[in-house]
Input
Amino acid sequence: MRPFRHKLLILLLGSLAILAASIVMLLNWYIKDRDLAAVSMKAQKDLAACQEIIDAKYPGPWSVRNEELYKGEVKISLNNDLVDHLAQLTGDTVTLFLGDTRAATTVRGSNGERAIGTKAAANVAQIVLKNGQTYSGEADVVGQRYQTAYTPLRTGNGTIIGMFYVGISPVYEQEFVNKPLATMAGLVAALTILVGLIALVLLYKWVGYPLKEIFAGSRDVAAEHGNQKVSIFDSGEAEKIEDAFMQMVEQIQALTWEISRSTNNNIDNALLKSNANAVFEQIKANEQMSEQTYAYTAPAAFEPLPEMENPWWNRAESLPKGLNKATLDQIVQYLQATHRPISTEEVAEGVKLTRVTVRRYLEFLEQCGVLKSEQKCGTVGRPVKIFIPL
Output
């Protein structure tokens, strides 16, 4: 199975990748939609500008002579110089139609030659030639889709004799759309990588490192039977986990000592019962003996147990809430064995308990008057509380 931190890392990177892809898709849709509108607007403006140039350069009405297109006295059919000049100014393809047939154009067919004599799309011819309206939008131009603009060509009396066209090629349109999209996609990718790196650092600091400390501390506690406290340089949820873990350890320790004490009590009760039976047997024997000898011997006085005279036990009969006799016995025995000034950490290591638990018992013994405490500087300058037997 993957470690927990690896799963978090995969979740984070996957979320960032999905977010970046979603942003790019939205940008693609937004930019493409706006850019297509901008391209269509450009075609309309270029169409109007080219009409003004033609009217200024060739005054006079549009007319048809000998089945050829004229503007004033100038022949427009096959006038490549005119359409090339307009195409160079606008960057568009330019065509002048006689009816629905190309009379002068920069549009080239599949063979690379000018598409003179080819027809306009039927839907465009219907709108422009039949209905007399301007057409703007995508249209088929010699087998390719262009963003176009068409307007009717009218004679002096208003008769429609042809069309004037400008169109933006697919290559230009793709460059117009894809360039900003590629730029935005690069910025999104760079920003995603930056955010990912920052998130990785914060994830390790706020989640990975605390979890690592908790796991390491739990292994140490398990290995040493609870003699070390899990310490985490963090706050918030990790600190709550730390506190809950230490409470669990202390509860397990208290339960262990309760079980041990109950076991010892059961053994003591069994011994007392056995001793009581022996006393009863002795009494019966004495009664039988007294019937025979009529002699009486006074029983010997009970001798006090050694520990009852020990000052360590004088105030241990009534313990505060949270302390138990078995744990106190264990700590007192260790203190009697060492009988020297000692710190909480040393006692905790010696009796295999946590420092928090040991400190409560040592402070209780200090209140009982069998210990006193002093503050001393530790190895790294931090004060250490030393308990001294009296």
Summary: The domain at 228-269+310-390 is CATH 1.10.10.10 (Arc Repressor Mutant, subunit A). The first helix runs from residue 4 to 57. DSSP finds eight helices and eleven strands in the chain. Confidence is low (pLDDT under 50) at residues 224-235, 293-309.
